[in-house]
Amino acid sequence: MPSAWLAFYRDNAPDSQGRFLSQIVAWDDARLEAVHDYIQWLFPLPEPSAFNPDAPLLTNADIAAVRADSTVQANLLAALQRMLRYYGLTPDTEANPKPWVCPADHNHLRLTRILRALTLLGLSTEATELHGAISRYDAVFPERTKRFWREALIAQTAAR
Fold it and tell me: Which residues of the chain have pLDDT under 70?
């Protein structure tokens, strides 16, 4: 039986709030900023979320399934592209304001999660590219934040 996260990522089942992946990816930037319990579904980790107790936990079985499922891979890339547009990190959005480019912002935690999830899910090239894009603003971020981002690129999963 597929995990709740895989069913969500295949767009066959909703998250714990009744939202489907396709709906979340279609949200506008204001909603992506205002809602705080979707990012753990878009980019799961093996550890429980401190902010969303209903978030799925990424398992080794999920990781293996992603690598073998072209639908989940395509949906993961679509979710990443949506978040890149939200952060103003695509060619068509790079001129947009970037409120997250400041010393402290909740989006830094989201970016850490995205980097680590991509790495765990076998998309290390995309994680490295994202890291390169956010590193253009390194002068603004505290060293601790930059260290979290670097460490996310070498993420290891706990066996589950």
Answer: 1, 156-160
Does 83 map to a domain?
yes
Task: Tell me if 76 is assigned to some domain.
Answer: yes
Going by C-alpha positions, the residue among 88, 82, 159, 79 that lies closest to residue 123 is: 79
For 95-137, the pLDDT digits (tens) are 999 999 999 999 999 999 999 999 999 999 999 999 999 999 9
Is there a contact between 94 and 134 (Cβ–Cβ < 8 Å)? no
Domain span at 46: 4-152
The structural domain count of the chain equals 1
The three-state secondary structure class of 147 is helix
Residue 114 covered by a domain: yes
Distances, alpha carbon 112 to alpha carbons 29, 105, 150, 155, in Å = 19, 12, 9, 11
Q: Is the pTM of this model over 0.85?
A: yes
